[in-house]
Amino acid sequence: MIEPNRDGDVWVFAEQEDKTVNDVSLELCGRARQLADQLGVGMAAVLPGWNGRELSHRLIAHGADKVYHVDDKQLEHYRTLPYARVMCQLISKHKPQIVIYGATAVGRDLAPRVASEMRAGLTADCTALEIGDYLDPRSKIEHKNLMLQIRPAFGGNIIATIVNFDRWPQMATVREGVMPLGEDDPRRSGEIVDEKVEYNDFDSAVRLIERHREKRAVNLKAARIIVTGGGGVGSKENFQLIRNLAGVLGGAVGASRAAVDSGFIDKAHQVGQTGTTVRPALYIACGVSGAVQHRAGMEESAKIVAINRDSEAPIFSVAHYGIVGDLNKVIPMMIQAIRERA
Predict the structure, then answer these.
(1) What angle do CA 267, 269, 270 make, to 5 degrees?
(2) Contacts of residue 75, Cβ cutoff 8 Å, sequence gap at least 6
(3) CATH code of residue 243
(4) What is the pLDDT of residues 45-69, one digit of tens each?
(5) What is the pTM of this model?
């Protein structure tokens, strides 16, 4: 366990694959920059990989003061043990006070391993990170400027705030899309620190024989228009109305958790705290009641249109335009009007 280091930097694990930095790492750089400024410390990214040093400049452009770059053939593709060795050795050497990972398949695999080795706390799948104070009810000691790790709990029915005041570094994984991806600033300057890491034979116990990558079925984060169906759509067959409207608008198909749980569509399309957080130019919610978990994942959309038979549905509280009516009648009328104007 590392003793609390109040002067330690805020770190982001920079996930990369095939010479491309994962968007969630860039999103986290923006938030980490804000946290570091609040604490009055530096912000750094850790970039393990092979022949990817030029990616450091992109991380600097998104807010990093330093990039700890580890270049090794063993790190060309992600494997748990070598990457964990990198993080543990660098954390022990530089003693950051906060380390943030994206809640991707890689981040969810790597972060618990590092937390266990460092005997540090870890909060998974956070949707917000803040700096604040915490009064320990047992010791009555007030701990200043801790990272408040905010995430849904109990199936998304409550929002929990978790603090870690005695086991450092403070660590969290953060869901993709919950932090806005800021504009990069190519004028920013920063330091690239080339690090060497010592491995042992155990780190090479797993060898990569073959890689298979499946393309993502839908990319909701990149969509400018999303048409989402909720439980009010009624059936899997009726969900074709949602697909038809998305089709004429050139948009992506989204779904609420109720629609996914009902089997109308697969989870890759789910929007909300337990799905994907989105910020499209236009978001059309059809038959979506608007539970707090769903609104948290789409309320920052530029324009929101809600269609629901219930005039009291919570979705109308965040909608810019609301249509009270039967989606089975409203959507075909919308499709016809759009086609006539095309």
Answers:
(1) 70
(2) 48, 49, 50, 82, 83, 86
(3) 3.40.50.1220
(4) 999 999 999 999 999 999 999 999 9
(5) 0.81
- How many CB atoms sit inside 10 A of residue 316's CB? 18
What's the CA gap between 234 and 31, in Å, rounded?
39
Burial code (b: 16+ CB inside 10 Å, e: under 16) for 294-306 equals bbbbbbbbeebbb
Q: Is the pLDDT of residue 156 over 70?
A: no
Answer yes or no: do 189 and 225 share one domain. no
Q: Are residues 193 and 234 in the same domain?
A: no
Residue with tokens 């993502």, as numbered in its chain: 216
Rg (C-alpha) for the chain, rounded Å, is 22
Q: Phi then psi for 143, rounded to 5 degrees?
A: -100, 125
136 has pLDDT over 90: no
3-class state of residue 314 by DSSP: helix
Residues 233, 93: one domain? Answer: no
Residues 161 and 225 in one domain: no
Look at the block and give the residue holding tokens 């949602």: 242
In which domain, by residue range, is 261 found?
220-341
Last residue of a domain, one of 170, 204, 238: 204
What is the tens place of the pLDDT at every residue in 206-243? Answer: 887 887 777 777 889 889 999 999 999 999 999 999 99
